[in-house]
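Case study.
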Amino acid sequence: MTAAWTEHPATSLRWRPGDRLDALDTRSTPGYTGRKRAAKVLRAGHADDLSDLQERLFAHGRTGGVRSVLLILQGMDTSGKGGIVRHVVGMVDPQGVRCRGFGRPTPEEQAHDFLWRIRRALPSPGLLGVFDRSHYEDVLVVRVEELQPEASWRAHYDEINAFEAEIAAAGTEIVKVMLAISPEEQLERLVSRLDRPEKHWRYDPADLRARERWGEYQAAYQEMLDRTSTDVAPWYVVPADRKWFARLAVSELLRHTLRGLDLRWPAADFDVERQRRLLTGG
Amino acid sequence: MTAAWTEHPATSLRWRPGDRLDALDTRSTPGYTGRKRAAKVLRAGHADDLSDLQERLFAHGRTGGVRSVLLILQGMDTSGKGGIVRHVVGMVDPQGVRCRGFGRPTPEEQAHDFLWRIRRALPSPGLLGVFDRSHYEDVLVVRVEELQPEASWRAHYDEINAFEAEIAAAGTEIVKVMLAISPEEQLERLVSRLDRPEKHWRYDPADLRARERWGEYQAAYQEMLDRTSTDVAPWYVVPADRKWFARLAVSELLRHTLRGLDLRWPAADFDVERQRRLLTGG
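After joint prediction, the assembly is written out as follows.
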């Protein structure tokens, strides 16, 4: 924490019972008083620390430890999930990272329970897993597009909570981040994609459907937050109209989570001095 | 290419019939006349280009393309494979990267053909796959430690060439890098691991066994290079006593490979102006 933060994002951004998504100012920067340039400098300044913490986790996994971290990113199209992966997750050693995006389920995935593909993508001990979309799509797009009967997706809330409690108990620290943007900001970002031919591949006319149903998605997000923000797997709602704030905030949440694991460097399970003699022939 | 390179590493480091590993100066910097600081600046200066090329590959994969890249890293302990992953692969978006390390095979892996675990880890279209060790362990440690009869590992050379030709034909561009260090440099690096408690987890007394058999490993590497450097999957031997040179060289090899794919940004498969009108209500 530095002077620019008046409150840690792990506190200020954590979803609380009674919070209303429609009351959130998506351009705000809760707990942070600095500006864009200072935010970038601040984040860059924490790169070594983040990297060190991630390497401790990796070392822990290599020496029999069971802890892992799972960062789940949700948000409307263009909310900046990919940017978080590139600019925040990209700050640490890719060797210790497993990224996975979840789009429309494949036929094979659809033949299974909705958590099947999720379980297969969970980070092994020592790894930082990153989900760009996740099992939460099953209470978001599935709900809004009426891909399943209500009784079916409604059951998912409890199923998700039980699932997350199970993997948390097995050693996975879960950080759930919803990137919240306004429809106006999304419009700007979509138009900007159209303006730049190198971004056309990221534009899908079908995405406009979700935009037309903004209110329904917000209601689905609201209930998701209300029903699945638990002590072992809390939601953080990050105002994301300002990309620099979202990136700074998520990097702090990740750092906070890794630090919370309180991992020491594994101790040598060999005689250091003896090895030195063996090596140097002394 | 810039002034500091007199010959592109794709040329100067490429293994040629008749090359001798024991004639290589592992402190040399073939084709490069600059020094350490300039090398770091040069590599950092290419970060955007490398990132752009990798994103084109990713976009290509997202739009039905079949190309992928597989970077295979081999080398003795402490040769800097992990550093290449962190410092070179770490320059691009982790979303498009799949890293996999291959250690001693698990019982499940051992129950299968030696290429089974390799096939399962191949990069999907659009991805950059990175192998820290690989199927080449089956003609290296397996040979030197006599884990299989000679007839068995000897058959692997042809099997590997057939396998790599098959995946190359399916769209995977293969870059094989051997990081070559001297035993003296390895000694320094091992002692340095002993000196730093936070590096003890990376030190394994069992690794000394490979060090004692340095000559046998060099012979195994020599034959590996002679037998498996093919047109579709050439080996590059990178002198790696100077980490900064190895990192610069591999970043250039990766850039060269990605550029060779000659991928354009995918064209829009929708009417851009119509989408603009739909979005802006114009």
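Observations recorded in class. Chain A has a mean pLDDT of 96. Chain A has 13 helices and five strands. We will return to this complex in the next lecture.
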